[in-house]
Amino acid sequence: MQVVMPLNLGLKLPEDDSLSLLIEITEEMDYRELNAAYERREAAGEASAKQLFQLVTCGFMNGHYSLRKMRDACRYDLRMIYLLRGRKAPSHERFGDFIRHRLTGDVMENLFYQLVTKLLERGHISLENLFVDGTKIEANANRYSFVWGKAVSRNEEKMQAKLQMKLLDLQTEYNTIETPPTLQDMLTHLYKLKAERKVTFVSGKGCRKSTLQKDIEELEECRRRQEKYDAHKAILNGRSSYSKTDHDATFMRMKEDPMKNGQLKPGYNLQIGVSGEFAVTAGLSSERSDMLTLMPLMKRMKEKLEQVFTRVIADAGYESEENYKGLKEMGVEAYIKPSNYEKGKTRAYRANRFRAENMPYDDASDSFTCPNGKQLTLSSKKHSKSKSGFISEVSVYRCLACADCPMRKLCTKSASGRTIQRSEAFWAYRAEAQARITTELGTQLRMNRSIQSEGIFGVLKQDWGFRRFLRRGSVNVFTEVLLYLFAFNVAKLHSKIQRQKDGVIIHQLKAS
């Protein structure tokens, strides 16, 4: 007979362990929203909602991202066992139900911003500088199950053109109403004829279909195809593509391409705002460009924190009149690097007199002067509308003396002569941003952006292996993002405390 001796290990947690900090932080949090969403009645000996959240966060901090790894860690990882405090280890189904149905929506976001508020109150972050950057993370979706918006529109147009011709032919053949019939009207009429003529539809080998049956079947096929196209357009909702296995994922060009051939893959554009090396806000977008993601990120953060930062520092991918104006209306200084900043420092760029930026502009006459001394005067004004609905006024300047100009080939390829399109507001915003980022403070902030915001992505993607989502759907994916960032913030705070750098919010420029 085998004898089993019960062992009481008497687990004692070191004070400098990251788990001690996790427990200290999570014990102080408000779980009313989580408990309201956690309708499941706890059986005797099961982990509570707060314990499950602590277990999930601890799992993310220690590389247990999948449900089964969390379940297994509850059996052999002493940190997870300590958090259970003698309660039954949850199954992977229990973890999945908790993350998918209890932490989704505002619940996880509320917990994340509670942590941000604590960091702010304790002086680990400040409301002075927000460093913003984005990256694309591959979705948990089949890379080849794509639906392209242009293909849907093109195929729908072809089908509709053939359908209209078919309807006109059927109108003549069956002597229907004089006005051009719709698809539904024609089907109703043909089914009525089928009943009147007592036509029986046939199928199978050796069966000969009647003309009426063929016409009805062809129209029914058109209706099915139109329903399919309508479903595609509803899912696309203005996007250029989506994946059949994750409808919220959009096909984007990733930097990390295993095939090294520029392959498009389904993914999400993840945006993170950083202060003091901590993630203080996050957003998930289906937009491939960063330009349209900044203002939604700022508005969501203002709604949750009820505060805004003094400055926002971002790279050239965020430059637009909409972002400049939106930040100014929020009372935030924009330290956004102009898209032509790097090129503008080159000798070839500055020496090119034919560029609009290098042409002399006269406020009094509202005109540009080309290198040949000809004037480009205001010709017209137009309004351009961005994808987000932002309307910008653009002035068009045209030269009327380009016909015999000896420099024409160097200046323009247009047959109608040289034109310049200029948004006065955008150029003014860009000049302000250019002046800010070239100051000593601007240089320091740009250096910190590369350290802090890009540093988070370096840890998440390289150290933690966060290169592909495990969950599907934008709601579940965003919950996964916030779990990563919550765990990252706790781990970062522990690291800074251990290195005695918890008071360092911004790095100083090194003396040359």
Short précis:
The chain contains 18 helices and 13 strands. By secondary structure, the protein is α+β, with helices and mostly antiparallel strands. The strands form three sheets. Strands 1, 4, 5, 6, 7 and 8 form a six-stranded mixed sheet that branches.
Description:
The chain is α+β, with helices and mostly antiparallel strands and 512 residues long. 46% of the residues lie in helices and 15% in strands. It contains 18 helices and 13 strands. Strands 1, 4, 5, 6, 7 and 8 form a six-stranded mixed sheet that branches. A five-stranded antiparallel sheet has the order 9-10-11-12-13. Helix 1 (18-27) packs across helix 18 (474-498). The longest helix is centred in the N-terminal third of the chain and has 26 residues, at 149-174. It is flat, with a radius of gyration of 31 Å. The relative contact order is 0.12.
Quick check: average pLDDT?
Answer: 89
* Ends apart, CA distance between termini: 76 Å
Count of individual helical segments: 18
Q: Judging from the principal axes of the Cα atoms, what is the shape?
A: flat
Strand content: 15-25%
Number of strands: 13
Structural class: alpha+beta
Major β-sheet annotation? 6 strands, mixed
- Uncertain regions: pLDDT < 50 for 5+ in a row? 1-9
Q: What is the gyration radius calculated from CA atoms?
A: 31 Å
Helix content percent band: 40-55%
List keywords for this structure.
six-stranded mixed β-sheet; alpha+beta; 15% strand; 512 residues; flat
